[in-house]
C-alpha cells in the first residue's frame, strides 16, 4: 500500500439524481453475499507466489476464465500480473487495480489482500448485465518493490490502448475504517461520482490524503495523464499497522469492509452508465 494498500448474488439497483448529470437513472449491479467476501478474505496466503495462484483461482470461481483471464509475465518479477477482462459494448476501458504482494514481516491482509481479493467480487457485481465499458481488473505484482507490476502494465500499453482508458480505479488497504478517497490526486469527475454514490446509498466516504506516505499503483497511470482515483481506509491512527506484524486478519473490520465493497460495486456501475465513451467526463444522458 502506498509504498514509501458457487457465490450467492444479490441484485441491487439505485436511483441517482444527485450531483452527476444522470437524471433519475437506475443503476443496476449485483453483490456477492458477505459470507463470500469473508471466505475470499480468509484465503490469504503468506508467500507472494501462493497469493498469485489464489487470485487466479478466485477469478475463475467468479466466472472469469479462458480468454478473459490472463497471467501477464512481468520482467524482473518472479510473479505475473493477473488480468481479468469484462468486455463491454465499446472500446472504452476502465482499469480497476489492486496489488497482491506483501512485505516479508507482515501477513499483508490489509495491505493489500483486502483490495486484491475484492477484484473477483467486483467482477461478479458487474457481469450480470451487458456493460458499455470494458472493465479490466488488474491484480498487480511487486507494488512493494517499486510499483513493478503496474509500471510494466502501463509501459506495455500501446498508444491505442492508452487512448481507450477512461479511468484507473485503484484499491489498496481497505477494512481499517470507513472508505476513504485520496482526494488530492483524484480526478475531480471521478471523485464527484464517488460522492454521488456514497450519498445515494447512505454509505460513509471521506477524504484522507496520503501524499506524504508514498506511492501507489495509480501513479504510472497518472504519469500518462489517465484520470485516477484511489480508495483506501487509512487514517493517522491506523497507518502504523501497515508493513508490520499487526497487519493480520484481526485488523480487518468486516462491517466497514463490506460497506467498501458495496460502495465500489455501485461506483463501477455508475461509471459504466455515466462516463463519456470518448473522454473521462460524465456523459449528459
Write a concise keyword list for the protein shown above.
285 residues; alpha/beta; Aminopeptidase; 8-stranded mixed β-sheet; two-stranded antiparallel ribbon; 9 helices; 10 strands; 32% helix
Please tell me about this protein's structure:
With 285 residues, the protein is α/β, with parallel strands linked by helices. It has one domain: 3-Layer(aba) Sandwich (Aminopeptidase). Helices cover 32% and strands 20% of the residues. It is built from nine helices and ten strands. The strands form two sheets. It has an eight-stranded mixed beta sheet with strand order 3-4-6-5-7-10-8-9, with helices on both faces. The chain has a two-stranded antiparallel sheet with strand order 1-2. Strand 8, helix 7 and strand 9 form a beta-alpha-beta unit. Helix 2 runs parallel beside helix 4, helix 4 crosses helix 9 and helix 7 packs across helix 9. The longest helix is centred in the C-terminal third of the chain and has 21 residues. The termini are far apart.
Amino acid at each position: 500500500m502506498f509504498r514509501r494498500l458457487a457465490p450467492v448474488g444479490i441484485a441491487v439497483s439505485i436511483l441517482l439524481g444527485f450531483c452527476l448529470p444522470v437524471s433519475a437513472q437506475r443503476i443496476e449491479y449485483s453483490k456477492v453475499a458477505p459470507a463470500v467476501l469473508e471466505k475470499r478474505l480468509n484465503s490469504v496466503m503468506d508467500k507472494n507466489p501462493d497469493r498469485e495462484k489464489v487470485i487466479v483461482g478466485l477469478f475463475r470461481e467468479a466466472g472469469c476464465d479462458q480468454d478473459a483471464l490472463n497471467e501477464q509475465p512481468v520482467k524482473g518479477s518472479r510473479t505475473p500480473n493477473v488480468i481479468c477482462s469484462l468486455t463491454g459494448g465499446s472500446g472504452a476501458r476502465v482499469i480497476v487495480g489492486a496489488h497482491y504482494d506483501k512485505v516479508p514481516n507482515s501477513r499483508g491482509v490489509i495491505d493489500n489482500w483486502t483490495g486484491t481479493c475484492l477484484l473477483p467480487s467486483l467482477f461478479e457485481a458487474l457481469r450480470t448485465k451487458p456493460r458499455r465499458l470494458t472493465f479490466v481488473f488488474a491484480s498487480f505484482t511487486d507494488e512493494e518493490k517499486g510499483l513493478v507490476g503496474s509500471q510494466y502494465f502501463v509501459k506495455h500499453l500501446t498508444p491505442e490502448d492508452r487512448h481507450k482508458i477512461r479511468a484507473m480505479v485503484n484499491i489498496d488497504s481497505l477494512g481499517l475504517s470507513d472508505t476513504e478517497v485520496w482526494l488530492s490526486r483524484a480526478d475531480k469527475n471521478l471523485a464527484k461520482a464517488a460522492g454521488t454514490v456514497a450519498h445515494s446509498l447512505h454509505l460513509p466516504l471521506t477524504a484522507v490524503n496520503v501524499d506524504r506516505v508514498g506511492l501507489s499503483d495509480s501513479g504510472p497511470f497518472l504519469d500518462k495523464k489517465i484520470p485516477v482515483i484511489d480508495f483506501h481506509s487509512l487514517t493517522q491512527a491506523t497507518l502504523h499497522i501497515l508493513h508490520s506484524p499487526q497487519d493480520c486478519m484481526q485488523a480487518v473490520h468486516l462491517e466497514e469492509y463490506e460497506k467498501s465493497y458495496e460502495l465500489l460495486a455501485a461506483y463501477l456501475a455508475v461509471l459504466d452508465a455515466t462516463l463519456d465513451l470518448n473522454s473521462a467526463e460524465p456523459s449528459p444522458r
